[in-house]
Amino acid sequence: MAPVLELRGITKRFPGVLANDHINLTLDKGQIHALLGENGAGKTTLMNILYGLYQPDEGEIFVKGEKLQVHSPTDAITAGIGMVHQHFMLIPVFTVTENVMLGDETTVAGEVLDRKAAAEKIRHISETFHLQVDPDAFVADLPVGVQQRVEIIKLLYREADILILDEPTAVLTPQEADELFGILEGLTEKGKSIIFISHKLREVAKIADQITVIRLGKVVGSTTPKNADENKLASMMVGRDVLLRVDKKPAKPGKTILEVKDLKVTDERHHLTVDGVSFEVKAGEILGVAGVQGNGQTELVEAVTGLRQPFSGTITFEGKDITEFGPRAITELGSAHIPEDRQRDGLVLSYPIADNMVLNTYYQKPFAKGVLLQEKTILETANQLVKDFDVRTPSAMTHVGNLSGGNQQKVIVARELSRPLKLVVASQPTRGLDVGSIEYIHKQLIDRRDKGAAVLLVSSELDEIMQLSDRIAVMFRGRIIDIVEAKDVDKRQVGLLMAGVRGEKKADGKKRK
Amino acid sequence: MAERPKPKASKETQPDRSAVKIFLDEVAKAPLIVPVLAILSGLILGGLIVALTTEEVYAVWRTSPLDAIRVGWDAAMSAYSALFNGAIGNPARIAEAFRGGDALEIRRAINPFFESLNKSVPYIFAGLAVALGFRAGLFNIGAEGQLFMGAVGAVWVGFALTGVPAIIHIPLALLAGALGGALWGFVPGLLKAKTGGHEVINTIMMNYIAFRLTEYLLRGPLQRPDSFNPVSPFIQDSAKLPRFFEDPIRFHLGFFIALAVAYGVYWLLFKTRWGFDLRTVGANPNAARYAGMNIVVVTIAAMSLSGALAGLAGANEVLGLNHNLAVAFSSGFGFDSIALALIGRSHPLGVVLAALLFGTLRNGAIQMQVSAGIPIDIISVMQAMILAFIAAPAIIRTIYRLRVPTGVADEIRVRGWGG
């Protein structure tokens, strides 16, 4: 039997870049084919070609043995190809049914929407494929995991046989991801075929039948989970050996650097998002704050770094009350802040690297004398930091906006970690970065810990928390639900805590406090 | 293509790229090319409008379209040559005057050029005011009102203070002008920083207050005692900005003060840590907060400074040219300066160049109206078109087939316009 989908020699050139270089890919019926590669490797370009958003310069696409010309997404949908984008294409104020119908409306007498028939069809789909969704619910009220199900239903509603999922787990909790994997397996059993795009090795190894690794626009290898472990996949993806396990010595905690007591913080809408949080971070240890996004971590970090005035409670730094301090005063105490949203808060994209390297120290000697900026000193320092922190750039005068995400983050890390430090607050430090950059930034954080800094790491990537933390605080709905020793817990237990479930954990994890 | 390209293929150059295209691409990256092409397009379209509004063209069209085109071309050319003569001077007349050797005639012949420079002075100051605001992410629509208050301050010190030497009197009068404008910038700055009240709305309101206040003052405390018109007394001789030539050339020290201030603004913005604060707040207020900058102070300071610069524009008109204050002393310098700051890309050098352009066009337009019978409004239309082209660089890029340059500096600026 011919494969469901076959790509032959797909090539796509953009000015100055070869985004896809003679890529071959074969998808068999009922299989999950993972497309693995770093950010910018060309995965998304390839899928956009398949989905009709781009036209290939060379190459052919075959669906069920027949050659297919895809000029637009409509062509792709007609051929039974559907795509779930990384950012959902749903309208929050519409119901599930309305969202699913959108673009493929069932009507009575020409113009009147037949919601009932559509809802019936959705119910049928959701039963057949075990995708529990209430057709009458408003999308805005649904959790992210369920919204994703709606996206999948949208494809099935259009009778897609080939489903493309672009980084589907990026927005999910570990539990939701597991549920998704269950759904995907159910779909393949019913004869659907799936292309699963990811840069996360673990999940690819877990669910794929076939793995194709892409690097710099080229297929560097095809394999199966049986024949390749995570380490091998990682080195294929990056093109060199990668340390997946972070190498770190046991922590040697010293005196308390940061202490937070009964902290309450409100957000812009005066909702209490941090609700009575207490913890301490000692010199020489990493405290990881785990939790699904939006459980108060952002506001917690803003309060600790002086960007947001707490509602009540105290924050002390080496015993000194800094609750009322602003960002500059806290920075001057020896604190670094790697912000959650690097482009929004951490960088001025229209500035050259050099100016960004001194963004919060420009007013101090030696970068300024009196009111005059010392451009030469700033440039020399920036050149040195670019070298030391391996920022890939033509020069230190390149605008930061022209750098890749990984290199942008390296600029921030270079700026923040190159000062004498007692405290490092790192919020989602590796979000959206490639394996090489992640590895590098992890090393830097551990290095700062070993040099005696207290590190507060906030991340919604559970792997990252597990690998780096000495202790783990789990946040749920504005509270710290528990603080545990990292060596006493496994991923599943932390995952449950992240979902707000406490009962199952053994008591020993809590002894310390 | 049968054979497989080598890995090097990723660096391949497209074969159809001619040398001209490569040159154009390179030029497209230079920040100045869009304004220059926009000005060129504005001039071309302006000529077209002149031709289309010449009635003779239509009369001839009926008999011979070809002749009509020629007539239209002639009309446009005579308009532009009148514009040139009015703005720079009539080359033939200048040559004649120098041959004749009569000093007065020479001064008369070269006067248009110096008058254009004079006209540029308020544009430079007000353009710098708006540009500085843009750099701080603030949209100062209030330059016109600040300019009025600057003129009021300067004229008051200019006539009321007596018995001081020029070396003291002139700086004091300029300072009073700057303070008047600064006050008018400070208020919306304070409202923006403390309450979030939008500076666009508040500067517009402040404009109206400034206009009416000026009228009131010119009918009351500042009115010339022997006049029934709303005009102020003439300023003391010691407050007048020195002129470099005898009549009719009015070219005065203000032009060089403006250039010095432009350099000062450049130095402040790009060489000092205050400028770094200001530009960071404008480019990314979130990052500015993150870096510990005081956005409230920067916003208030930037608006006050912007107002002071606009105030200097008014002071210069009063101290350098008019020597007294009348209600209609400004021909909308403050409003034109918004366009001008955009054309100059909010850079002091760009502002100076754009101001010279505006000053020259405005000055030449008067001559164009007199000798070619083209209404002065054509210059406003041209300015508007130049501005439209600059505000929408995509149009210019499409017309001239320029490639979109890499980099984000442009988009960041756009955010500034919205305030």
What do these coordinates show?
- The complex is a heterodimer of chains A (513) and B (419).
- Chain A has two domains: 5-238, Rossmann fold, CATH 3.40.50.300; 256-334 and 420-506, 3-Layer(aba) Sandwich (Rossmann fold), CATH 3.40.50.
- Chain A is of the alpha/beta class.
- In chain A, strands 6-9-10-3-11-12 form a six-stranded mixed β-sheet, with helices on both faces.
- Mean pLDDT of chain A is 87; it is low at 504-513.
- Chain A is built from 17 helices and 24 strands.
- Chain A is 32% helix and 26% strand.
- Chain B is mainly α.
- Chain B has two domains: 33-87 and 353-407, no CATH class; 122-343, no CATH class.
- Helices cover 73% and strands 0% of the residues of chain B.
- The chains are: A alpha/beta (513), B mainly alpha (419).
- At the A-B interface, strand 2, helix 10, helix 11 and strand 20 of A face helix 11, helix 12 and helix 18 of B.
Summarize, please.
The complex is a heterodimer of chains A (513) and B (419). Chain A has 513 residues and is α/β, with parallel strands linked by helices.
Provide keyphrases for this structure.
heterodimer, A: 513 residues, alpha/beta, Rossmann fold, 2 domains, six-stranded mixed sheet, 17 helices, 32% helix, globular, B: 419 residues, disordered N terminus, disordered C terminus
Structural class of chain B, by secondary structure, is mainly alpha
Question: Please, how many helices of chain A?
Answer: 17
Count of the domains of chain B:
2
Number of strands of chain A: 24
Counted up, domains of chain A total: 2
* Radius of gyration of chain B (Å): 25 Å
Number of strands of chain B: 0
CATH superfamily of the largest domain in chain A: P-loop containing nucleotide triphosphate hydrolases
Major pleated sheet of chain B: none
Distance between the termini of chain A: 62 Å
Low-confidence stretches of chain A: 504-513
| Fraction of residues in helix of chain B | over 70%
Could you please say which CATH topology of the largest domain in chain A applies here? Answer: Rossmann fold
